[in-house]
Amino acid sequence: MSSAVTLVFLSVTDLSQFDLRHLRSAFGSFLTGVTVVTTREKSGTPRGFTANSFTSVSLDPPMLLICIDKSAESCDVFTESPGFAINVLAEDQAETSGLFASKRTDKFDAVQWTGSQSGFPLLDGVSAWFDCKRHQVVDAGDHVIVIGEVSAYEFNDRIGLGYVRGGYMSLSLERSAAKTAGAGSSAVVGAIIEIDGKIWLEKNSETGKFQVPASGLDYTPGSLNRFQSYLMEKNISASISSLFAVFESEESGQQSIYYRARGEFSREKVQNSEKIQLFGYDDIPWDNISSDALVIMLKRYVTESRRQRFGVYFGSDRDGSVKTLSENDDD
Ligand SMILES: Cc1cc2nc3c(=O)[nH]c(=O)nc-3n(C[C@H](O)[C@H](O)[C@H](O)COP(=O)(O)O)c2cc1C
Fold first, then answer.
1. pLDDT tens digits for 77-94?
2. Which end of the chain is more exposed for a tag (fewer CB within 10 A), N or C?
């Protein structure tokens, strides 16, 4: 995968000058699962929040940890409670993650749950849970590390929800797309590449219509590797973030796979740059796009990008459904 790399060189004395958003983005490169950590107030009221800082620590004795932001509403409840439960979310629980990352006061009314042996909330549909006694609380900058000793646990074969660079990821969806887009496939593989808030469209010299960059459009076999080579040949630097659409043409049976990507553009470097044009969301030439399926996909992209909630479309070029795996800027 070709990627835009940002290098930051700072000496130790420059530490106070870290741009915190930038540092958070760097930490966000680490792909994690997503958990909901729960406990109860002294009064018995259930409390919970979304956390991806979960780490297994020790097998014997069994221990794990999570890090809680000191500014979280529930920080004191967690550090003072005798224990907590970790719920490892399954890949269809992105909405639950969003719910528990919110400030809603009725979080537990919106999900099904039961109490663990120690009474901490265990959410339905998770891929694993751990019931823990509080072992130690360690002060760590703007967070506290809460180490728990596991007193009971369960897991099943549901695949966990993934989280990277502020967006959710479903391993099954990625796998099925990767299989379709793998070497030797004849799928169209492309990406909606955004540069400075504009979408990059290429003009097809034969039809005069615009399309998003892709390999396999000219009836030659496409694949993710070929698409990446295609971008490299053109000197296009793009960082492919997430899957956006996987569909099959009802007429020809051809599969198409499109990703979302952010790119960098240097007109001097890019070959045939006159064929490439950047369009703001309000300037896309809708009447001059190469196919109806592409129009629908681009319109969905514009709507979802404005809301910063992206989904992945699965189906045919006429009928299918969008699975929502929303973006998040909270952590
Ligand atoms: C995917 C994801 C992971 C998060 N991980 C953590 C985390 O590890 N620690 C933390 O303190 N907050 C984390 N947050 C943010 C909290 O869930 C969020 O601030 C929540 O509102 C805290 O709830 P509270 O203020 O009701 O306690 C995460 C949010 C998301 C979406």
1. 999 999 999 999 998 888
2. N
Beta pairing class for 237-248 and 311-316: parallel
Total-model pTM: 0.69
Q: pLDDT tens digit string along 14-29?
A: 556 678 888 888 898 8
- Record the tokens describing residue 199, joined without a space: 């979408």
Pocket lined around ligand 1, Cβ cut-off 6 Å:
34, 49-53, 67-69, 72-74, 97, 101, 103, 163, 328, 330-331
Q: 31-164 — its CATH code?
A: 2.30.110.10
Task: Decide if domain 170-324 falls under CATH 1.10.10.60.
Answer: no
d(CA 284, CA 286): 6
Q: Name the one residue in this structure whose structure tokens are 């800027």.
A: 329
Of residues 119, 117, 151, 108, the one with CA closest to residue 133: 151
The CA dihedral of 228, 234, 237, 239, to the nearest 10 degrees, is: -30
Both tokens assigned to 129: 């849970």
Give residue 331 CA to ligand 1 midpoint distance, Å.
7
Report the atom number in ligand 1 closest to the C-alpha of 69.
Answer: 11
